[in-house]
Design brief:
The complex is a heterodimer of chains A (417) and B (115).
Chain A: E1 2-7, H1 11-22, E2 28-31, E3 47-49, E4 58-59, H2 60-72, E5 77-79, E6 82-87, E7 92-97, E8 101-112, E9 116-118, H3 121-124, E10 134-136, H4 137-147, E11 154-158, H5 162-173, E12 177-182, H6 192-199, E13 206-207, E14 210-218, E15 221-229, E16 242-245, E17 248-251, E18 255-257, H7 260-264, E19 269-270, E20 275-276, E21 289-291, H8 302-320, E22 330-334, E23 338-342, E24 345-346, E25 354-361, E26 365-374, E27 377-387, E28 393-398, H9 399-403, E29 409-416
Chain B: E1 2-6, E2 15-19, E3 25-27, H1 32-43, E4 46-47, E5 50-56, E6 62-67, E7 71-72, H2 76-83, E8 87-89, E9 97-99, E10 109-111
Parallel strand pairs in B: 5-8
Antiparallel strand pairs in B: 1-2, 2-3, 4-7, 5-6, 6-10, 9-10
C-alpha cells in the first residue's frame, strides 16, 4: 500500500511528489508512461521557463532537471514505461507495462497529473485532402527536438498559440521556410514575446482573422493550402484567398486536458475547463484523489503548474495524515467575461491564509477590475492594467474575507474600471 | 530615425519609440524595464539560441543545447551552421560545454539535459 500514487511524471507530477515527500509521506510512487521523467518539458528545448520559480530563464529540460534532481534526494519511487489504465474511488490504480505486466496497486491517496493533449485536425474539421504532412505542433516538436526528424521544408502554421510560434522559429533555424502563421481570432493566443522573437525576428507574416479553407495533396503529401480572411462571424470572405505552396501544415489550435481516467473513475468534471472540479486544495469530488497542472486547466506558465501541484501534494499528505476539511462549501461562479475559475469550490475552513483563484477572461481588457461578489453585493475588487484571454489571471481571496461570507456561492466578474 | 516597437517585458505591450539619433532614447514606456528593453533591442538586439546537436548512444538521437548567454541576433544562423558539425557520445551532462566561444561571440554552447 502506497501513501500516494502520482499519475504522470511531468512538471505537475514531479512537484506534487516532491511536496508530498517534504510533508512527510514516505511511500510515494510516480507512474510515467514515457521512458523518462519530465513530460513535455523534454521537447520544449527553448528558454523562458522558470522566471517566477527560479528567477532565471531556463530551457524546458533544465526546468524539469531541477525537479528531477530534487526528487533524486528523496525516497520517491518511479515506474517508467508504465501506462495507467484505470483508477477507482477505492484508490486502486490498474497499470500495465512490458516489464511487469498487469498490476493493481493500492494507495491511500492519488494525484492526477496527466497533463493535456493537442487538438488535432479532426477536432477542428479542416476541409480538403487528407495527406501526410499535417502535424500537431507538439508532435512536430518532439520529432525535431528529440527523435531527430525534420518534418518539412515549406511550412504553414495554423494557430498562433505559443507552441505554434515556438515551432515557427525552430523550423526556420533548422532551414525550413515558414510561409505564414494563420490565426482564426483577431488576436494571437500566444505571448507577445513569442510574437516578436519567433515571427517578427524572422519576417514570418501573421494573418489574424484568417483560417485554412483547403488542403491539397499531391502524391500523398501536402502540396498546397488555401487561406481565407474571415468576417465577424468567422465565415470565409469570398475573394480574399491567399495561396501557399507548402509540404507541411502544423496545427497549434489548442490543448485538451487528458481526463479519460478521471471520467472513468466517476469524478465530477467541469465542462468549462474539461478538467475535474476541484476544491481549494486541488481535491476532486472523490476524497483523497487530487488533480493538478494541465489536466485540471491549461496553464500558460509551467511555474504556475509547479506551484499548484505543490499544493496538491501537500494536500494529499494532509489527507493521509487524517486531517479532514471542516465546515461548509462555497461554489465559485464565473460572472461576465470570465470563462472559468479553478478551484471551482472552496471550503473556507480549509483555506490557509488565502485561496488562490485562477481564471481566464473572455476578451482583452485595459484598466479594468476583477470583482468578487456574493448575492449581488461586491465583496472585494482587484485592479488590473491589462488582461487578455491568452493570459491566465489569478486573485488571492483572504481567509478572513471568506469567513464573513454567508452565501453558498460567490461570483468572479471582469469589467472596465 | 525613430523606430517603433512593442515592449515584451510584461503582457501590457507598451508601444515604444526609440530615437536612434538621440542616443537611442526611449519614449512610450511605462516602466524603467521598458526603457532598457527598447534601448537594447534597437541598439544591439541579442538572443539566447537554443537548438539540438547529434547524440549517439543515448535515449534519443538529439541532445538539447543553448548558448550560455545572449548572442547578437545576426549571428544566430552562423551558430546553427556550426552546430551541424557537432556530434556527441552519450553520456553527456547538463552544463557540459559543446562549443567554446562559438563564432567569436564570447558565448559557449552548453548541453541542457543529461542524456
Amino acid at each position: 500500500m502506497y501513501d500516494l500514487i502520482v499519475v504522470g511524471g511531468g512538471p505537475a507530477g514531479l512537484a506534487a511528489a516532491c511536496s508530498a515527500w517534504e510533508k512527510g509521506l514516505k511511500q510515494i510512487l510516480i507512474i510515467e508512461r514515457d521512458k523518462e521523467l519530465g513530460g513535455i518539458l523534454n521537447q520544449c528545448i527553448h528558454n523562458g521557463f522558470g522566471l517566477h520559480r527560479f528567477k532565471e530563464e531556463l530551457t524546458g529540460p533544465e526546468y524539469a532537471g531541477r525537479f528531477i534532481d530534487m526528487l533524486r534526494d528523496t525516497g520517491v519511487q518511479v515506474m517508467l514505461d508504465t501506462m495507467v489504465l484505470e483508477i477507482n474511488r477505492d484508490h486502486q490504480v490498474h497499470v500495465i507495462s512490458a516489464a511487469n505486466g498487469y498490476q493493481v496497486l493500492e494507495a491511500r491517496s492519488i494525484v492526477l497529473a496527466m497533463g493535456c493533449r493537442e487538438r488535432t485536425r479532426g477536432a477542428i474539421g479542416i476541409p480538403g485532402d487528407r495527406p501526410a504532412g499535417v502535424f500537431t505542433a507538439g508532435s512536430a516538436q518532439r520529432y525535431l527536438n528529440m527523435e531527430g526528424y525534420m518534418v518539412g521544408k515549406r511550412v504553414v502554421i495554423l494557430g498562433s498559440g505559443d507552441i505554434g510560434l515556438i515551432m515557427a522559429r525552430r523550423l526556420t533555424l533548422e532551414g525550413a521556410q515558414v510561409l505564414a502563421c494563420v490565426e482564426l481570432m483577431p488576436y494571437s493566443g500566444g505571448l507577445m514575446r513569442n510574437i516578436v522573437q519567433c515571427l517578427e525576428d524572422w519576417g514570418i507574416p501573421l494573418y489574424l482573422s484568417h483560417t485554412i479553407t483547403d488542403i491539397v495533396a499531391k502524391d500523398g503529401r501536402v502540396s498546397h493550402v488555401t487561406v481565407h480572411k474571415l468576417d465577424d462571424n468567422r465565415q470565409p470572405i469570398p475573394g480574399t484567398n491567399l495561396e501557399f505552396d507548402c509540404d507541411t501544415v502544423l496545427l497549434s489550435v489548442g490543448l485538451i486536458p487528458e481526463n479519460e481516467l478521471t471520467r472513468a473513475a466517476g469524478i465530477e468534471m467541469d465542462p468549462r475547463t474539461n478538467g475535474a472540479v476541484v476544491y481549494e486544495n486541488m481535491e476532486t469530488s472523490i476524497p483523497g484523489i487530487f488533480a493538478c497542472g494541465n489536466v485540471v486547466h491549461v496553464h500558460d506558465l509551467v511555474d504556475y503548474v509547479s506551484a499548484e501541484s505543490e499544493r496538491a501534494g501537500a494536500a494529499a499528505a494532509a489527507y493521509v495524515s487524517g486531517t479532514a476539511p471542516e465546515g461548509g462549501t462555497i461554489d465559485i461562479r464565473n460572472g461576465a467575461d470570465v470563462s472559468y475559475t479553478v478551484p471551482q469550490r472552496l471550503r473556507p475552513g480549509n483555506v490557509p491564509k488565502a485561496a488562490d483563484i485562477f481564471f481566464r477572461v473572455r476578451r482583452v481588457f485595459k484598466d479594468s477590475v476583477i470583482e468578487v461578489s456574493a448575492d449581488g453585493a461586491p465583496l472585494v475588487t482587484y485592479k488590473r492594467e491589462h488582461m487578455a484571454p491568452g493570459e491566465m489571471e489569478h486573485i488571492l481571496l483572504p481567509r478572513k474575507l471568506l469567513d464573513t461570507v454567508d452565501a453558498s456561492e460567490i461570483t468572479v466578474t471582469a469589467k472596465e474600471a | 530615425m525613430v523606430r517603433e516597437l512593442v515592449c515584451i517585458v510584461c503582457p501590457k505591450g507598451c508601444r515604444l519609440h526609440v530615437d536612434e539619433d538621440n542616443n537611442y532614447s526611449v519614449t512610450g514606456n511605462s516602466c524603467p524595464r521598458g526603457a532598457e528593453y527598447g534601448h537594447h533591442e534597437i541598439k544591439n538586439p541579442t538572443r539566447v539560441l537554443t537548438s539540438t546537436v547529434r547524440l549517439d548512444g543515448g535515449l534519443y538521437r538529439r541532445c538539447p543545447v543553448k548558448t550560455d548567454r545572449a548572442v547578437p541576433k545576426g549571428k544566430l544562423m552562423d551558430i546553427m551552421a556550426a552546430l551541424n558539425d557537432v556530434s556527441l557520445q552519450s553520456p553527456v551532462a547538463a552544463g557540459q560545454v559543446v562549443l567554446a566561444n562559438v563564432c567569436d561571440t564570447g558565448a559557449n554552447v552548453i548541453v541542457t539535459k543529461s542524456l
